Request: fold
Amino acid sequence: MIHPLPPSALKGEGMTSQRARDRLIAKLKEEGIRDQRVLDVMRNLPRHHFIDQALHSRAYENTALPIGHGQTISQPWVVARMTEALLEPFDLKSGRPQKVLEIGTGSGYQAVVLAQLVPQLYTVERIEELLRQARRRFRQLGLENIRSRHDDGKLGWPVEAPFDAIILTAAGDAIPSQILDQLAPDGVLVAPVGSPSSQTLIRMRGDGKGDFMQEELAAVSFVPLLGGIG
Reply:
């Protein structure tokens, strides 16, 4: 099920923007994205709302773009692949994750994609100014199922655990144990792991008994996963 953005969120969207989004979706399909729900959400989502106006002309390129504070809005293919990878195991069980945790809100783009596909999204951001901007976008888009927190992302959101699924949008050498502890026993975690020069997108799937199976999905490039509050 998709929770679409209200019509008011897309007010003023022109045909030029829609054509650019359609071209982006065609590119994502060419590069292997198959989940139609993910493609539909990203087709309808105005990515230019999540970046500085000076970069609006590049909003629908399949590339990462700067958002300030040394952070980026992820490449659309990466957002689509991570979302697809997170949902896929639940599809096999004829369900969907009810409660999802995102580490690294950034611009809010990945959060808004997920919030249209899951009932409850929790997102943590260490840089207060980025979180303030993301919250404004959540309100403008009329999304009421996102809860956000300004905190050290490496700590997760323990009082709301366990989570059916967890997604990290920054890369560390390993998944912090405090985050993994907040994943439900049969949950799914999707994250980039590795050094700045060599990172791999992985998916961890719980067996319900405390063990996790790890899969390597793709080579990626993310900003580093940092601790503390910025």
User: Anything to note?
Assistant: The chain is about 30% helix and 25% strand. The mean pLDDT is 93. The helical segments are 15-30, 36-44, 76-92, 109-115, 128-140, 177-180. Residues 76-92 form the longest helix (17 residues).
